């Protein structure tokens, strides 16, 4: 579905991504792991159009999408979740979902003059969709709560919910587990699995929590020093010599995280 070919991203003389080549299969939940500074987030940002690559190519279903801006990718169904922006934190969770850009007529001045009835109908439909998304994510009780007042884990669920307001095909999640308690992390995991199975979403997940990766991801791709080191099931990755060496180089803390 997504093919990344020999992508480089340099910051000055520093090669954050150094010739990464990988494929993301349609319908998969692909895990992207690697020690701190391996280049995972930078590669995500290149694929998602947030950063221009220094060189290399990214295709989606055979179409060259290298360097396309995020809003163009958004319309193609490629989404990267972002933290809820500061300016949206005083809006309710439901409103945050309803804000996701779509094809609302209300956005066009012409329609605000001539299509009031239609706008009201669309608003009702949008609200119903937002409520269905909140229900799916088991956070209906937060509908009227301000996004700035919910917990970190609940925010992650809301970010995932934003991808459900449009017809996402592939969603990139960067460290959804960071700072999230185990119960909420399980809820997030359940939502990802259901979106994958029931709605055909493809996911690419950067995560340091190996239990989370183990539960959700196959295959797992391991990066180090800007390159792809290995790909396989988590068990294969854990047994891979190069992977162990890469984690060892960053100290015991990370070796433990890989579970060796
Ligand atoms: N805008 C930038 N300018 C300069 N260096 C950068 C920039 N963005 C990232 N880097 C560097 O590129 C390297 C890769 O960073 P990146 O965030 O992609 O790694 P990562 O694998 O996602 O790490 P982590 O797991 O810690 O999030 C790091 O050494 C980082 O300091």
UniProtKB/TrEMBL annotation:
Matching PROSITE patterns: ABC_TRANSPORTER_1, ABC_TRANSPORTER_2
- Looking at the record, the residues that make up the ABC transporter domain are 2-250
**GO molecular-function annotation terms?**
ATP binding; ATP hydrolysis activity
Q: Does the keyword Nucleotide-binding apply?
A: yes
TM annotation in the entry: none
Sorted UniProt keywords: ATP-binding, Nucleotide-binding, Transport
Q: Which domain of life is it from?
A: Bacteria
Query: Under the cellular component aspect of Gene Ontology, which terms does the record hold?
Result: plasma membrane
Q: Kindly provide the name given to this protein in its UniProt entry.
A: ABC transporter ATP-binding protein
Please name the source species: Seohaeicola zhoushanensis
